[in-house]
Amino acid sequence: MKLRDELPVDHRLSQVYRFGGGAVGVFLLVFGILGLVDTVKFFGTTGKDVAGLSTNGALSTLSIVVGLILVTGAVRGGNFASTLNIVIGIGFVLSGFVHTALIGRGNNPLGFHMSNVIFSFAVGVALLAFGMYGRVGSALPHDNPYWRSRHPRRAAHEDAVRQRQHTGAPGGATRGAGGTGTPGSTVGAH
After folding, report:
1. Contacts of 122 by beta carbon, 8 Å cutoff, 6+ apart
2. I want to staple 145 with a disulfide (CB 3.0 to 4.6 A). Which of 6, 78, 128, 161 is the partner?
3. What Pfam families does the annotation carry (predicted)?
4. 1 occurs within a structural domain
């Protein structure tokens, strides 16, 4: 499956994907580095607190890797960053569910506590929101590149109507004193 990039390089949505994923990535990097500097056991099941969250060497290392991936996505931007935020967000939410069952057991390889589970859910939902922002929804504006990609015939028709209105060609309404045929306005039924 090839990821098509309908999003223009300088589109404002790219900034949401970049800053959202990048901020989470930087936090994970700092958290992971602080965990490793504190020389915690690699697979300790009790964990050691860093920034209010329990960690061990494995979780610190995993946090650094995921943080680097998110920062790389932020640098790249576009659909890549959006899709990456969605995929990693799903991973965080699933991790929250799995580790809820592992808390208090000897089989807790990442040393999660309830604060980690809550953090995992919160970060997962935030990354999903950043990744899906302006990309998924039933009421996307018609100038949105994702809407246009999903409705190419309707987008082409709206462009043609707008062009006729702009040039005053027959078949299109000309702009007058009270006209609404401004470029970028939404034309057609919703």
Report:
1. none
2. 6
3. DUF4383
4. no
